[in-house]
Amino acid sequence: MEVATALQLQVCTSPNATTPLDGMRTAQQAKEIWDAFFSIPDLSLEWLRGCSRGQQEDNSRAHDRTIENMRGVCWRLYLEYLPGLNVEEWPGALCSKRNAYAKLKESVMFDPAKAAAGNPNLNNPLSLADDSPWTEYFKDTELKKLIVQDVDRTFPDIPFFRERDTHRMLVDTLFVWCKTNPDISYRQGMHELLAPILLVLDREKLANSSDTDGLPPEMLATYDSNYIENDAAQMFFTIMKSARTWYQVEPVDVIEPRVPSSNRFSQSSTFSRSRAKLPQKVLPIVTACRRVQCDLLRALDYDLYEHLDLLSIEPQLYALRWFRLLFGREFPMPQLLVIWDGIFGSDRNLELVEWLCVALLIHMKQDWRHGYVPDTANEILHT
Fold first, then answer.
1. pLDDT tens-digit readout, 131-159
2. Which of 113, 259, 351, 363 is deepest in the core (most CB within 10 A)?
3. How remote is the C-alpha of 43 from its chain's centroid?
4. How far is Cα 91 from Cα 106, in angstroms, rounded to an integer?
């Protein structure tokens, strides 16, 4: 909870939270930022994580700029896409992972006519056979239409997401993930987990027309504009390893909630009694939302928990969106990126998210003046 509180304070006070998103850098600007980053005396992965979590007290403004200027590199490190701070290992690691994505993409995006060449029974768009490549092709077409519907609405106020190449990268990456995770496939909101990653990596790339003479080979490899999609896709895949359960539509066995030992916390309440009567199987996202309100909030702010409980406000009505979009609808993009710095900087398993949900509820309570607390989940979402 201390990390969530520190990060919340950083979002409220950091200039990152209010400044507009910068455009693409020149090669010279990128080189200066790169050199300054690797000349930091105390540079270590743990030090960077502390900066992202808002836990470095000395010279905090400089720390904010460090993360902001090298956000794409930091996220690659936090999500273990890059193998630590030994930059000599980066080109090889990047080449391997970029090639892996390229091969994966090629394997799921195919020409049905070529796949069925030589077999007239299967190479027929009218074929209804399950093993016909055309059958899979038409299913894939419907899946892409579903993805495109969401991608078309991605952060409409940011011009970057209206660009044709950005649109293509979003659709292709989401399609590849869905094809390799058919049990989940595509669910509304996944595009908003991928989009900020693409934005961050694009802002740090080196344009093909840049004067790259004299730039370190590690820097050229890291900021290569030809591999924005490859990098963003692999980072998105890592995030989805933890976030996938929030999109799962198959219920699972309920894990009994912990009951705090304090007498006050063991009081019976309307919502707590209702929990005991739940069916044995519940969606994982519902379980996660209930843990936020009924376990964590109950232990940290019993009065707020009790108010929400007495009003029978189901936590998934407000927290489901927070989990699935990683607060993407609650903050403007500059602030959201600071939030994601802290989430990724804490651990790649996104364990900080539930604590941020609690911190957000408690912060909202502080804004509710004269003791007023919302009476509906809708009011919570629009506070």
1. 677 778 889 999 999 999 999 999 999 99
2. 363
3. 25
4. 22
